[in-house]
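User: Please run a holo structure prediction.
Assistant: Happy to. Please share the sequence and the ligand.
User: Here you go; the ligand is 2-acetamido-2-deoxy-beta-D-glucopyranose.
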Amino acid sequence: MSKNTPKTEEDNGSDPDPTKIKPYTWPSLAKPMKLPHPQKRSVRPLFSILLLIVFAATVSFRAVLRRADVNLSLSLSAWSPQRKTHVLSFNSTLLKYASVDISEPRAKQEIEQLLEGNFASQGRYRTFATWRRFDTHLDLRARSSNSIQALLRSPRFYRYWLQFRTVLHDWARKKTSFDPEIMSDLIRSVKLPLTNNSKRYSSCAVVGNSGILLKSEFGKLIDSHEFVVRLNNARTTGFERNVGSKTSVSFVNSNILHFCARREGCFCHPYGVDVPIVMYICQPVHFVDYTVCNSTHKAALIVTDPRFDALCGRIVKYYSLKRFAEETGKSLDDWGVARDGANFHYSSGMQAVMLALGVCDKVSVFGFGKSGLAKHHYHTNQKAELGLHDYEAEYAFYQDVIERPWKIPFISSKFKFPPMVQIVVFML
Ligand SMILES: *[C@@H]1O[C@H](CO)[C@@H](O)[C@H](O)[C@H]1NC(C)=O
Ligand SMILES: *[C@@H]1O[C@H](CO)[C@@H](O)[C@H](O)[C@H]1NC(C)=O
Ligand SMILES: *[C@@H]1O[C@H](CO)[C@@H](O)[C@H](O)[C@H]1NC(C)=O
């Protein structure tokens, strides 16, 4: 963990002035932003530049404002709409379609090949001669060969190879089953290895990478959460006032590490070797990179349970199918073609939110959503969205987490969603 908040004159220990803020409700993140004009005369100048839009459709939102420009902390009173008061009824056709993983047969075949040491179909991993990281112990013959046998003669590689096979095997075994109770297992599988205890985090911030973060200065608020999750190596340096500087966990997809098997300088320790990483596996071959990265990472490097991945996949697909049917009026069979079904995937942000919901008492979500007034990412100049995600479907899911968690499919009735708020602030 690292906390490195710049000291300011506000840090004088005095009690904050409690000020009530009425939450604005905003039905859909996907709609273009309409910003109400701040009341220039009736408020202090500092307040007048700060416009708070809080996506908590529910009541009891309490905010404590101390010097509105830099320091704002939120607390939610206990609230949690629970599904027990609602009769569950899900559309069984949608459930059925959402449960089919089109990419499953391909993944199964890949895993079998990899366990046998056959990397022939693995694109850039195919030629071991390009794995320069292992060159030192290899003779020239090995370097010019594509055979894994040659590589296995390198003691250094052999160690990785055994670990690779073990983790891939364990992962593949779990991948074959679906478990609706998996949300309740996150405390054991993630929280426990991170902190050596099973107590839920009291407050969590999931920091998305949307450019809307640059329109506010929520760095201190973000850092005030016990557990701060950042996504896909987004850097904080230079953006501390907007995004904070504390990182409790770096959440990434395995594509981020894809150079680790091949060269020393990969993106393995974005926030240093002491910040734990939680990662989901996009392709089974990425376990090679995982194994290599893990060997130099001091803190935990946790791969998400494939049953948790499957749950996230089903949920997002359910919302995507539903939206597709409602907006196009077409048959659900056409969804696969329209959305590139075999490559369709939930975003890293969605799974990070799911993770936080599983290990936290309350969850605040920052930097999710888009606006014509803001960059796509706060830290890059990337223009467009990636086609393999359905962000609108994910926004609909977040909205249900906040307002109607009983409407979320595939979740065991034993799991209770903690309260979540989605926070967007615009400084005009
Ligand atoms: C984890 O907690 C147990 C029991 O509280 C303790 O015995 C053990 O030393 C702890 N391990 C670490 C690595 O802190
Ligand atoms: C990851 O690294 C840690 C510490 O070096 C080690 O204990 C653990 O066995 C490794 N895990 C795998 C799956 O290689
Ligand atoms: C289930 O959803 C699909 C797609 O939205 C719709 O066409 C179908 O009529 C629904 N079935 C029921 C029983 O509501």
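The chain has two domains: 17-74, 83-104+178-427.
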